[in-house]
Specification:
The protein has twelve helices and seven strands. The two termini are 37 Å apart. Strand 2 and strand 3 form a beta hairpin. Helix 4 packs parallel to helix 8, helix 8 packs antiparallel against helix 11 and helix 10 packs antiparallel against helix 11. Strands 1, 2, 3, 4, 5, 6 and 7 form a seven-stranded mixed beta sheet that branches. The radius of gyration is 22 Å and the shape is globular. The protein folds into three domains: 116 residues, Acyl-CoA dehydrogenase/oxidase, N-terminal domain (Butyryl-Coa Dehydrogenase, subunit A, domain 1), CATH 1.10.540.10; 92 residues, Beta Barrel (Butyryl-CoA Dehydrogenase, subunit A, domain 2), CATH 2.40.110; 166 residues, Butyryl-CoA Dehydrogenase, subunit A, domain 3 (Up-down Bundle). By secondary structure, it is of the alpha/beta class. This is Acyl-CoA dehydrogenase family protein.
């Protein structure tokens, strides 16, 4: 991987704007060989190391342990910036932030202190295999330990991670969320990720074969019991908002990449009766970029708003969050997500109209923007997001918490 090392990575920023600039530097490094890396689809070990070296992995980590102590609104913007250059690495970074915060979503105060010190001091990177639609992972209580057997699909990033988050089900039906060493015996990677987009996320399946985990790795459980609260359900909203920011970044990256090609390479059309000397003078090209920019400014404004709204809840007292607050945030996140999927896919398609036929050459890899957004936006049906917003607009009903809302 060509990362074009940035010398000031040795000095970490001390403010939000500095971290956003750091994310742009990382994005520039990733953009340099994004097409080649995407084509080779190798496990992104070097890319994860770049995130670590840049300090982005510990962005949310407490200052006391050497982390940046930044807010979620910053982390979401960082995810967006990285996704402009490489949607796969933007996804892995966003998911890392989610799993790094998992202990705050579900854990006890003691678990929070222990896990945050562990990952921040060691600059550990998280992956996860928690797909709730896979019910095959059986968790057996063996006294002081839990034994896991089964299979999980979409273990995004686990292959290149230090810690992996797992979700399984006890015999009595209770879900158990655990954090384990990614190199644990019994955690078997199947290397079967072969999709048209997000090719570097290593989102293949894992098999759990007699994986033994101590009970204290079960997040939130005390004496084998757990007490749910509304704050727990913010994890699903945070995941949805990570996706939304990632999609915004991919769409912005598509537009910016297309604009550079149009400025430098696209030729004007000589058979229209209104011949121009430059493609940048073509009225239909200007109209298209005006449309792209207007739509992405609109989605950006809505996403920025909900970023701040959710960030306030995430950084507030856990016990103070109400289902009303949670529902109000959920419906706006649903609105933002469904809009950027629509606008982003349009940009990813129409960008070729303003670049021209030669832009379809495989060496450019411009189709990766559409493929990445198309692949990941199928995570859960966008029609259900539209329905949630519709029920709120028409009936005043807030979305009910679920594994996808």
């Amino acid at each position: 991987m060509t990362t074009q090392a940035v010398t000031d990575f040795q000095v970490f920023p001390d403010n939000t704007q500095g971290w956003l600039e750091r994310a742009r530097q990382v994005a520039d490094a990733l953009a340099a060989d994004a097409t080649q890396r995407e084509r080779e689809a190798k496990p992104p070990h070097a890319e994860v190391q770049l995130l670590k070296d840049a300090g982005l992995v510990t962005l949310l980590g407490p200052n006391a342990h050497g982390g940046a102590g930044e807010r979620w609104s910053t982390a979401l913007r960082v995810c967006r910036e990285v996704s402009k250059a490489d949607g796969s690495i933007g996804q892995l970074l966003g998911y890392h932030y989610l799993w790094a915060w998992a202990v705050r979503f579900f854990g006890t105060e003691e678990q929070i202190a222990e896990q945050e010190a562990l990952y921040t001091r060691n600059c550990y990177f998280y992956g996860g295999a928690i797909n709730p639609r896979d019910k095959q992972v059986v968790v057996t209580d063996e006294g002081d330990t839990l034994r896991l057997n089964g299979r999980k699909s979409f273990a995004s990033g686990s292959v290149v991670s230090d810690l992996t988050c797992l979700l399984g089900t006890l015999d009595d039906g209770r879900p158990v969320f655990m954090i384990v060493d990614s190199k644990s015996a019994g955690l078997i990677y199947n290397y079967d990720w072969d999709n048209i987009g997000q090719r570097l996320t290593e989102s293949g399946s894992v098999t759990l074969a007699d994986l033994s985990v101590p009970w204290d790795a079960a997040i939130g459980y005390v004496d084998k019991q757990i007490n749910p609260m509304p704050y727990n359900s913010l994890s699903l909203l945070t995941l949805q908002l990570i996706m939304t920011n990632m999609y915004q970044g991919i769409a912005e990256g598509a537009m910016e990449t297309a604009a550079e090609y149009t400025r430098t390479t696209t030729r004007p059309w000589p058979y229209g009766g209104d011949d121009k000397e430059s493609a940048t003078d073509e009225w239909y090209i200007l109209e298209a970029y005006g449309d792209f920019r207007s739509k992405l400014w609109a989605t950006e404004a809505l996403i920025n708003h909900v970023d701040e709204e959710l960030s306030e809840l995430l950084h507030g007292p856990r016990e103070a969050v109400t289902f009303q607050q949670r529902g109000e945030a959920a419906v706006r996140i649903a609105a933002a997500k469904q809009r950027i999927i629509k606008e982003g896919l349009e940009v990813g398609t129409r960008m070729f109209d303003v670049m021209g036929a030669r832009a379809t050459a495989a060496r450019y890899g411009f189709d990766r923007f559409w493929r990445n957004l198309r692949t990941h936006s199928l995570h859960d049906p966008v029609a259900y997001k539209q329905r949630e917003v519709g029920r709120y607009a028409l009936l005043g009903e807030l979305p009910e918490p679920s594994f996808y809302t």
